[in-house]
Every structure is written in structure tokens, then in C-alpha cells.
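As a next step, the fold was encoded as C-alpha cells, giving this record:
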Amino acid sequence: MNMNAVAEKQQHTETELNRGSESDILCWALLAIYAFARVLQVYPGGVPMLGVVALHVFPPAIFAVIHGVRGYRLSGILTFVGITLIVGNVFENLGIRTGFPFGHYYFTDLMGPKLGVVPVMLGLAHVGMAYLSWTLARIISGGMQSPLRGLRAVAVPVLASALWFRGTCRKTRSGQLF
């Protein structure tokens, strides 16, 4: 290898490392914003609730894209985002309109405009929470370095679903809120 090729490769490696540290800083900043938003939720009235909701939704979704590009490339994370948005919206609309599979519930206007009967921001919340759940499930089930095969190919999505499940809406029983 000649000296120019070695220098070029070293410069490329340094550029990649710097890009990684910049995205690390951004990911930690997004985490800090999200944590701050969780605290804001405890003190209602100081910040409009739609702002608090936005701070709960956008940082995890942005984190998912930035972190996802590192592990799955841009095309992979965009596929993940697309599938999450479509499947999430279809099932939420189905659930609200029919009660299947989650029971009868509705969303208040707190999360802003809706696509059908589902808030647009909920789709972005699905992206952030699904990606974080998927990542945690991969870590719990044996690490991020090896491909999903065999039992892990089934266990990771099931574990991710269990980690993700939480109430984000108002459920009704016989017309009553509970």
C-alpha cells in the first residue's frame, strides 16, 4: 500500500469516528430532552401540554432514526419506520372503530391532529417506542452483534412487544372511562 492510500484510509477512519461521536452526543441530548419532558409532565401548567407531548414523541423518534442508521443503514431504518407507521395506524384505527384487538377506547385531542381517529403524533411515538423496545429486546436476548436466527428470530419481536405495551389512551367499559 502506498503512503497516499494509507493516509486516505486513516482520514476516512477518523471521519467515521468523529461522525460517530457527534451522533453519540446528539443521541444523549435527545435522551436528556426526553427525561426533561418526563419531569415537565409532573408540573402541569408551566408548559402547554401539547408541547410536553411533543417532547415525549419527537426525541425518541429522532433517536430511532439516528441510531437506526448506524445499525441498519438508512434504507433499513426507513423500512422499519414505514412498517411501524402503517401497521400501528391500521391497528389503532381498527381498535378504536371495532374494539378489536385492544378493547374500546379513544384518543383525546391532546396529541393534536388525527389521521382517521388516531393522532398523527402517535405514529411517531410508535416509531420511537418500537425501536427502543426492539433494541432492548436484542440486547436482552443476546446482543446486537449476531443476526437473529432460530428461537431469537421469534423471541426478539415477542419480547419487544412486551416491553412496548403500555397505555397511551383512554379506555372505556360500557361507555365509562376507567
In short: Residues 104 and 154 are 29 Å apart (CA to CA).
